[in-house]
Amino acid sequence: MQTYCLIVQYDGTDYAGFQVQPGQRTIQGELETALQKLGPNFIRIHGAGRTDAGVHSEGQTVSFKDDRLTVPVERLPYALNALLPRDIRVVASRLERSDFHARISARDKTYRYQIYEAPFPNVFYQRYAYWSKESLDWKRIDACGKLFLGKQDFAAFAASGGSAKTTVRTMHEVKVDARSTLKTIRFTADGFLYNMVRNLVGTMVDVGLGKLSLDEVRAILESRDRRLASATIAPQGLYLERVNYS
Predict the structure, then answer these.
(1) Are the C-beta atoms of residues 241 and 51 closer than 8 Å to each other?
(2) Where are the domains positioned within the chain?
(3) What is the pTM of this model?
(4) Catalytic one of 11, 52, 108, 206
(5) Which of 52, 82, 91, 231 lies 20 to 30 A from 73 at CA?
(6) What does the alpha-carbon distance between residue 206 and residue 217 come to, in Å, rounded to a whole number?
(7) pLDDT per residue over 116-167, tens digit each?
(8) Rounded Cα distance, 237 and 74, in Å
(9) Is 52 designated active site?
């Protein structure tokens, strides 16, 4: 049995997230439908991250096992892209060791959140960035990001409905870049909880607006109480940028 690995890009605007859901259009569902057209077997795939509705990816990693695909691994992106919708693209493929699993084998992941800051929304960014009509204090946002570094309990930033056994995660890096038209916040961690990035960004934006102080964010983190943190920010600014493996 061969173990396959695919790198997938997608615009998540018109999908109910990555994971298969009955009666819903999903990224996983589209990929599995395309794979079934290439061989006789139904193939269940596994993604490195279960991105939510409206969330995008530049580097989603997908793995699956099969022994009946007739398309050579190096030709899989061409074959699959001919069958997939235009807003999903397989950009690389390879064979992996037998114990490889896109989610379980991941060492860490990087998510990026994009913010467009201007008096009026930009029609070309509305699917791919959060619009803030108010100016944000990016030095305060950068200082807030540093509070999330290291091994900590992120229960205050985990939405209900997740299946994680623990809310402790190790945040390796929070990098703020406010130099361009699209401001970005990047998070690299050994794992993320359900809606964790969007909840963190929602709180950071409130800090940038002067609604929360750094001391209040510190207290929210230590409280482990989701009710104290800011609202979950909109999904369209979020990207799964890359998944790293050892």
Answers:
(1) no
(2) 2-96, 107-245
(3) 0.95
(4) 52
(5) 52
(6) 10
(7) 999 999 999 999 999 999 999 999 999 999 999 999 999 999 988 767 789 9
(8) 32
(9) yes
Q: Which pLDDT tens digit goes with each residue over 14-33?
A: 999 999 999 999 999 999 99
Q: Which residues contact 67 (CB under 8 A, 6 or more apart)?
A: 1, 2
CATH architecture classification, 2-96? 2-Layer Sandwich (3.30)
Please give the DSSP secondary-structure letter assigned to residue 60.
Answer: E
AA letter at 197: V
Q: Comparing C-alpha atoms, which of 166, 2, 18, 24 is closest to residue 70? A: 2
- Which two structure tokens, joined as six digits, stand for 94? 């390879």
Q: 171: buried, middle or exposed (CB in 10 Å: 19+, 13-18, 0-12)? A: buried
Residue 208 tokens read as: 């940038």
User: How is domain 107-245 classified at the CATH fold level?
Assistant: Alpha-Beta Plaits (3.30.70)
Fold equal for 2-96 and 107-245: yes
List Cα–Cα distances, 113 to 28, 48, 62, 105, 217, in angstroms: 22, 18, 22, 24, 19
